[in-house]
Amino acid sequence: xxxxxxxEDWPDFRYALGGLDDAIFTFAEETGRxxxxxxxxxxxxxxxxxxxxxVAEAIKTSAIEGEFFNREDVVSSIKNGLGLNKIHDxxxxxxxxxxxxxxxxxRSTFAEPLTAQQxxxxxxxxxxxSNNVLRGAWRTHEEPMQVISGAMGKEKVHxxxxxxxxxxxxxxxxxxxxxxxxxxxxRAIKQASVRSAIAHLYxxxxxxxxxxxxxxxxxxxxxxxxxxxxxxxxxxLSRTIEADKNAxxxxxxxxxxxxxxxxxxxxxSEITVTAQKQAIALVDFTIKxxxxxxxxxxxxxxxxxxxxxxxxEAGPEGFEGGMNATKYGSISKISKATATRDLQYLSEIxxxxxxxxxxxxxYYLNLDRIL
Length: 371
Known about the structure:
By secondary structure, the chain is mainly α. It has helices at residues 21-39, 43-64, 71-82, 94-108, 116-126, 167-180, 192-206, 213-229, 237-242, 245-255, 262-296, 302-312, 325-332, 336-348, and strands at 146-149, 156-160, 352-355, 362-365. It has a two-stranded antiparallel sheet. It has a two-stranded antiparallel ribbon with strand order 3-4.
């Protein structure tokens, strides 16, 4: 198998933008729409929407790689990094601390040129609790860097990256391309989603680290989008990607075979548009959530408030499968009978809506009734 980096035209990516006009226009339009929505919100609400978006990205970019963190740890790490906690909240998991810190750093340095040192710092954050990985440095091992799947003895090789001794030169080329293709650069790519797509594919094709390449590659894609917008962008690419990981890996796999990447850019541009629409839904959800608590806070017990907040964590998509007495009791550590009474009360005051009946009864937050 001959990969993109083994071909004579590497890394001179070719693509046609003829069929991408709608996606490029929609992305720019939705970016402006989100900016307007945020500017119209009080500062506290703005920051809540920003934190929610960063938390979603941190959790989902890790989940794509099979790493799952406690949401509270990630929230604490991000709020600590943004200076929103007067006293730093403790974060038990070092890698959760690291991914949260990475999100803050990506946001705060979006306008700066991308450097090897910055990538090394990002890698150190990600691999804080990974003692068996070479941290903060390009890989150096002699064995091939391969992306594989399948059980031992039946492995399938999806991609093989350039050998380690080529990585420093390849990354010099990548960093030069990234910085000169930025707005104002002498090879600027005006379409942010197109540049982001190329940046992600280019970086992933080199695979310069022993581990963490996917997460850092998605952070680079976000940096490219933010530079194109001229401000830290509010979206979670990983949230959209994680919803259909197979399509993501399939698109990457196909793109790694050739330096004609129109199909990859089309896929990735559509992902950015979907992520923007999800971000708009998140901002809208943040507004509804605030109005909900303003309306109901004085009528909820501490126990009821705990469950409602847990339901809110699911975001605009809602609590998976809805709430029922069994789930309620598990979250609040009470009997099923008490949980049923609480749910009946919440339904009576119209804090939640009821669907179904009998054993299939499910409860959902009633966010639209108070607008």
